[in-house]
Write a structure and sequence with these properties.
Rossmann fold, 270 residues, alpha/beta, seven-stranded mixed beta sheet
Amino acid sequence: MKTVLICHDGAHLDQVGLARWMGSFTDLAGIIVLRESKQRMWQRVRKEIQRSGLLRFADVAAFRLYYRMFLAQRDRAWEEAELTRLKQQYPESQTAPRICYTNSPNSSEARAFLKEIAPDLMIARCKTLLKPEVFSIPRHGTFVLHPGMCPEYRNAHGCFWALANGEPEKVAVTLLRIDTGVDTGPVYGYFSCNFDSLNDSHIVIQTKAVTANLDAIQLKLEEIVAGTASSIPTQGRHTAVWGQPWLTKYFAWKRSAQRIHHASCHPALS
């Protein structure tokens, strides 16, 4: 199958690691690399304020600062080690994919790039909702590896919110086909992983859920293209749209993880 990957510039696990994985079982014909403008970033800020209100947005901003000061360096080291592992597992293809640099996956140059390549399937690893005239170009559809179990945890950071809500069984990546809604398309698989709720960040957990399941995700994509895959029924289940992580919820998650860890280490005291 001929494929295209959409990812953000500098997201090396996607831009290099997932690209090599896709190139190992498909003809990865192109990569759309997003170099977003500051205007796009402020659009996301305004949308989060509209969703959460100013008070909750302060909670979001506090988490961003906390993450940058205390978690980001450790996560970068983990990602570098994981990328090294993926590069060893998936050698670089002899035929390099074409690259399209753009500020939006819905730009005219991105559409022209896709129409020229005419891929069978596309994987979108980006924060921007794709327009129908973009996600409908691949013959077998455009798919996302959404960090969260859908439909319960749609939109942003579903793995974080599942942990913050005390639902570790719903910490998973959802393979779904994009439609006009926000993570409302047909679901083709859930992929989870072993994780350390006490010590791992939500970024590591949601990334691990992808990279630990690449063989299974490959098989499912091949079934989709072959026409033998069936979607998973989701009608009647609870559905909710989530936003950016809050610092208060992060501390609540970690306190809960600490209590569970303490109880498991000292069962006689629990």
